[in-house]
Write the structure tokens for this entry.
Amino acid sequence: MSESISGLMELKELYQEIILDHGKNPRNKGKCEGFTNDAKAHNTLCGDKVHIYLKLNKDKKIEDLSFEGEGCAISLASASILTETVKGKDLSFITRVSDDFINMIKNKKKITINSLTPDQMTTITSLSGVQEFPMRVKCATMAWHTLMSAIEKK
């Protein structure tokens, strides 16, 4: 087996591991105390549900962020990865990373934001395989769209 195919398989396995870990052990699950904004979404096609809670401070920075939800491993992993990536960040970062993430999933674009750590980049990119399964795109993007709705108080 060539080295590049072997490396690609290892990367795919790492991505699957990350998704399964976040799906089975979601980070920041539950309702954060003192939340200032929230929004919910429900994918009626598959039954996935997500409710995003965030505590925005006066400087427009997310002090706390959590979610409640149920659904497939992709949906839960995406919500978990989202909360880990943007908690403590300001709105301009959140908008850029959300746009990048949705572009990656829907349009097969690369993540362009350069202020992510290598671990954050690997974790976010772990969901890139969803782009090959159009029925799963909404599972991966629902929490991200819901976060933006919560920020905009829609």
Notes: The longest helix spans residues 3-24. The CA atoms of residues 60 and 92 lie 9 Å apart. The chain is about 50% helix and 15% strand.
